C-alpha cells in the first residue's frame, strides 16, 4: 500500500497567462529600461501622417523611441510626401504602426511581409529623391508570426501591377497640401526656366536658365545658385512632360545629396491655376516643422 | 550597595545591546520597500520615524527630502533584481516576514551574499537618483550638460545624457554613511564600502550611447547621441558575475593602516570592481528562521540537469527530491486582429515538475 501510494501521480492545473513564444526570435514586451511607461493618447489632428489609419489612439513614446508628441510630428512630417505617391497600399499602415502604434498591453509591431511590400514598392521612389530605405524601417527586425500588424485585406499572392513607369518628382499632384509637403521636404525651391535637358547615364541632367528667383533658399548659396544644375535621379527614360517644355516657367524644388543637386519637384508656374495661386499665397505664411526645436 | 552595582551593570548591558543593534543597520534602509505607498519618506518628523535609517541617513533624509522617493524606489529595485538574479540558487533573496532586516542576518555575517546585496543596493540608489534627474523629477539636478558638441565619430552630442555623477555622489553619501559611522579600521565597514563602490563601478563601466536618426525620412544625416545608464537588469547580471568570482579577504595591517587582502596569498588583491567577502556562507539547506534562511524544502528544481545551480541534487542538497506531473494551461497561437485586439487559444500541456522533498 505504501509503495503504491508513492507511485501515484498527482495533477495540478496551473493557468499561466503570459504569452508563450517558443522558437521566436522576436522579443515581446517593453524593453527593460527606465523611461516612463508608454501612455495611451489621442492621435492629434495635426499628425497628418496617421489621419484615417483606422484607430484613434496611440502609444507615446512610440516604437521609434520618439518621446514627445512634438518629436513624433516633426519626424512624421517628412514621410507625408511618400503617402501622396501611393506606392503601396500598406504605406500608411506600416509607418503609423511605428510612429503612432496602437494602444495594447504590449507593443504590436508591423509584420515583416507588410514592411517588405512597402519597401519594395516605395524604395525606388525614395531613391529618386535621394533617400535610402532608412535603418529605422529595416524589415528583418519585424515579426513573422500572427502577433503583428498586416493590411486587413492581405492578399498573400501579390500580383505585379502593370503601372506605367513614373517620374516621382514630376507626377506630383497640383494640390496645395502636396506641394507644401514637398516644399518642406526639399531643401530649396526656385522659380526659373529650363535651358537644357540631357541624358547622363541613368539620370537626366537639367540645366537651368540664368535668371532665377529663390522661393526657399535653404542651404543653397548664391554662387551655387548661379550655375545650378539639377539631376533627375534614375529618371533617364521616365515620362516628364515638364522637362519636355522649355518655354514655360517652373517652380523647381531640390535638395543636395553628396555633391549633386537632385530634383525633388517641378510644377508649372501657372498663375491662371487657382490651386497654384492659392499655394503660392499660403507659402508666405507656411511654417515647416523645424528639427532644432525637438532637441534642446 | 549590591543594588547599586546591579543597576549599573544592567545599564551597561543595555548600552551594549543598543550598540549591537546599531551595527546591524547597514542595509536596513531596504525596509523602505515595505512601507505603504501613502507613507511619506521626507519631512523632519516622518524621517525620524523611519526605523530602517541610521542616524546619519535620517539627517540626509531631512536635508535632501526630495531625493528620498528615489531611495524608496531603489529599495524595491534591489529586492526585485536580487530575486531575479538568484532565482535558481539555494539562497534566492527571500525576504523575512517582517522587520527592518529585509534579507535576514545573512546580511550581517560578511558573506558573499552580503557583498552582492551591498553592491546592488548602492548601484540601485545611484540608478534611481540619476533616473529622477533625467526625468526632471529632482530639481537640483538635470541632464549632464557637459556632454556636448560633435563626437570624433561625427554625430552630435545632444539630448539628455544621464547625470550619473550626481547619482553616484548621492549614493556615496547615503549608502556609505552607516559604514563610515562605524569607523574605517574594522573589517566589516571596509568590506561594505568596497562592495558599495564596486556596485557603482558596475554602472560606470557599462554606460551606453543611444542615438536617434532624425533627418528627413528617418535618414541618419542628422544623428543625435547621448549617454545612458545600462538597464538595471544588466547591472544585476554584471554584479552576479562578480559575485561568482568574489574574493575572500581578511583584515591585514599594512604599515600604520589596515587593508583587506586575500586570505589566500596566492590570489591577487581584488580590483575596485571586484566583490569581496570576509566569511564563508552557510549552505542554505535547512530552515533556519533565526538567520532568515528558509531552506530549499519545497523548492522547484531542474530535474534534467545535474550541473546547473538549480539542478535537483545541488539545489536540494542531496537526493531528496521527487517528480510530479502537472497540467499547465497556457495561452498560445495568439493573433492580432484588426483593429485592435489580441486573441489567444488555451493550450493544455502536461509537464514534469521536480521539487525538493519537505
UniProtKB/TrEMBL annotation, chain A:
A molecular function GO annotation: Wnt-protein binding
UniProt domain NTR: residue ranges: 167-288
Gene3D superfamilies: 2.40.50.120, Frizzled cysteine-rich domain
Pfam families named among the record's database cross-references: Fz (PF01392), NTR (PF01759)
Limits of the FZ domain: 35-151
Signal sequence segment: 1-23
Name of the protein described by the UniProt record: Secreted frizzled-related protein 1
Membership in a protein family: Belongs to the secreted frizzled-related protein (sFRP) family.
GO cellular component, one term: extracellular space
Disulfide bonds: 50-96, 115-139
InterPro entries associated with the record: Frizzled/SFRP, Frizzled_dom, Frizzled_dom_sf, Netrin_domain, Netrin_module_non-TIMP, TIMP-like_OB-fold
Family annotation (CDD domains): NTR_Sfrp1_like
GO biological-process terms attached to the record: canonical Wnt signaling pathway; cell differentiation; closure of optic fissure; embryonic retina morphogenesis in camera-type eye; eye development; non-canonical Wnt signaling pathway; positive regulation of BMP signaling pathway; positive regulation of Wnt signaling pathway
Keywords of this entry: Developmental protein, Differentiation, Disulfide bond, Glycoprotein, Secreted, Signal, Wnt signaling pathway
The keyword Glycoprotein is assigned to this record: yes
Subcellular location: Secreted
From TrEMBL, chain B:
One GO MF term attached to the UniProt entry: signaling receptor binding
Entry GO CC: extracellular region
Coiled-coil boundaries: none
Described purpose of this protein according to its UniProt entry: Ligand for members of the frizzled family of seven transmembrane receptors.
Main localization, broad class: secreted
Signal peptide boundaries: 1-26
Subcellular location(s) per record: Secreted, Extracellular space, Extracellular matrix
Gene designation: wnt4b
PANTHER family from the UniProt entry: PROTEIN WNT, WNT RELATED
Protein name per the record: Protein Wnt
Family per record: Belongs to the Wnt family.
Pfam families membership: wnt
Keyword terms, alphabetized: Developmental protein, Disulfide bond, Extracellular matrix, Lipoprotein, Secreted, Signal, Wnt signaling pathway
Organism for this UniProt entry: Danio rerio
GO biological process, alphabetically ordered: animal organ development; Wnt signaling pathway
Superkingdom per UniProt: Eukaryota
Amino acid at each position: 500500500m505504501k509503495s503504491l501510494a508513492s507511485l501515484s501521480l498527482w495533477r495540478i492545473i496551473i493557468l499561466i497567462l503570459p504569452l508563450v513564444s517558443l522558437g521566436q526570435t522576436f522579443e515581446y514586451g517593453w524593453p527593460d529600461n527606465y523611461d516612463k511607461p508608454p501612455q495611451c493618447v489621442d492621435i492629434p489632428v495635426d499628425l497628418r501622417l496617421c489621419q484615417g489609419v483606422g484607430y484613434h489612439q496611440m502609444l507615446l513614446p512610440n516604437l521609434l523611441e520618439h518621446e514627445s508628441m512634438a518629436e513624433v510630428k516633426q519626424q512624421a512630417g517628412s514621410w507625408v510626401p511618400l503617402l501622396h505617391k501611393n506606392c503601396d497600399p500598406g504605406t500608411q499602415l506600416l509607418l503609423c504602426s511605428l510612429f503612432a502604434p496602437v494602444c495594447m498591453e504590449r507593443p504590436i509591431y508591423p509584420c515583416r511581409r507588410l514592411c517588405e511590400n512597402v519597401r519594395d514598392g516605395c524604395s525606388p521612389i525614395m531613391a529618386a529623391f535621394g533617400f535610402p530605405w532608412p535603418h529605422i524601417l529595416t524589415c528583418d527586425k519585424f515579426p513573422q508570426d500572427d502577433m503583428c500588424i498586416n493590411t486587413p485585406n492581405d492578399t498573400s499572392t501579390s500580383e505585379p501591377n502593370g503601372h506605367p513607369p513614373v517620374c516621382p518628382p514630376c507626377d506630383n499632384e497640383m494640390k496645395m497640401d502636396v506641394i507644401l509637403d514637398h516644399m518642406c521636404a526639399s531643401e530649396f525651391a526656385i522659380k526659373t526656366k529650363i535651358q537644357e535637358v540631357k541624358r547622363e547615364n541613368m539620370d537626366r541632367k537639367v540645366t537651368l536658365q540664368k535668371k532665377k528667383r529663390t522661393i526657399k533658399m535653404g542651404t543653397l548659396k548664391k554662387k551655387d545658385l548661379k550655375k545650378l544644375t539639377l539631376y533627375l535621379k534614375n529618371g533617364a527614360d521616365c515620362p516628364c512632360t515638364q522637362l519636355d517644355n522649355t518655354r514655360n516657367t517652373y517652380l523647381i524644388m531640390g535638395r543636395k545629396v553628396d555633391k549633386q543637386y537632385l530634383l525633388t519637384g517641378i510644377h508649372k508656374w501657372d498663375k491662371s491655376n487657382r490651386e497654384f495661386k492659392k499655394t503660392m499665397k499660403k507659402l508666405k505664411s507656411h511654417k515647416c516643422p523645424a528639427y532644432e526645436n525637438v532637441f534642446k | 550597595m549590591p543594588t547599586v552595582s546591579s543597576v549599573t551593570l544592567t545599564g551597561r548591558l543595555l548600552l551594549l545591546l543598543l550598540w549591537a543593534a546599531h551595527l546591524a543597520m547597514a542595509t536596513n534602509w531596504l525596509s523602505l520597500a515595505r512601507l505603504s505607498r501613502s507613507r511619506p519618506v521626507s519631512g523632519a518628523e516622518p524621517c525620524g520615524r523611519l526605523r530602517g535609517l541610521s542616524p546619519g541617513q535620517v539627517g540626509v533624509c531631512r536635508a535632501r527630502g526630495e531625493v528620498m522617493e528615489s531611495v524608496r524606489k531603489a529599495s524595491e529595485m534591489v529586492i526585485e533584481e536580487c530575486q531575479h538574479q538568484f532565482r535558481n540558487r539555494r539562497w534566492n533573496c527571500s525576504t523575512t516576514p517582517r522587520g527592518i532586516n529585509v534579507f535576514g542576518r545573512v546580511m550581517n555575517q560578511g558573506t558573499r551574499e552580503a557583498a552582492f546585496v551591498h553592491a546592488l543596493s548602492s548601484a540601485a540608489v545611484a540608478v534611481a537618483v540619476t533616473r529622477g534627474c533625467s526625468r526632471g523629477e529632482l530639481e537640483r539636478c538635470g541632464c549632464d550638460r557637459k556632454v556636448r558638441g560633435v563626437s570624433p565619430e561625427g554625430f552630435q552630442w545632444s539630448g539628455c545624457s544621464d547625470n550619473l555623477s550626481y547619482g553616484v555622489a548621492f549614493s556615496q553619501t547615503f549608502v556609505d554613511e552607516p559604514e563610515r559611522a562605524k569607523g574605517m579600521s574594522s573589517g566589516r565597514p571596509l568590506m561594505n564600502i568596497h562592495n558599495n563602490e564596486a556596485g557603482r563601478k558596475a554602472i560606470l563601466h557599462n554606460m551606453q550611447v543611444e542615438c536617434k536618426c532624425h533627418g528627413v525620412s528617418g535618414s541618419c544625416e542628422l544623428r543625435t547621441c547621448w549617454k545612458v545608464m545600462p538597464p538595471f537588469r544588466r547591472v544585476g547580471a554584471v554584479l552576479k558575475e562578480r559575485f561568482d568570482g568574489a574574493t575572500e579577504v581578511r583584515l591585514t595591517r599594512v604599515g600604520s593602516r589596515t587593508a583587506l587582502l586575500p586570505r589566500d596569498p596566492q590570489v591577487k588583491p581584488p580590483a575596485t570592481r571586484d566583490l569581496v567577502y570576509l566569511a564563508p556562507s552557510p549552505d542554505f539547506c535547512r530552515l533556519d528562521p533565526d538567520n532568515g534562511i528558509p531552506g530549499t524544502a519545497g523548492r522547484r528544481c531542474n530535474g534534467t540537469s545535474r550541473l546547473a545551480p538549480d539542478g535537483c541534487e545541488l539545489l536540494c542538497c542531496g537526493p531528496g527530491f521527487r517528480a510530479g506531473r502537472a497540467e499547465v494551461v497556457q495561452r498560445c497561437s495568439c493573433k492580432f486582429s484588426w483593429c485592435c485586439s489580441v486573441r489567444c487559444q488555451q493550450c493544455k500541456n502536461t509537464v514534469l515538475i521536480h521539487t525538493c522533498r519537505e
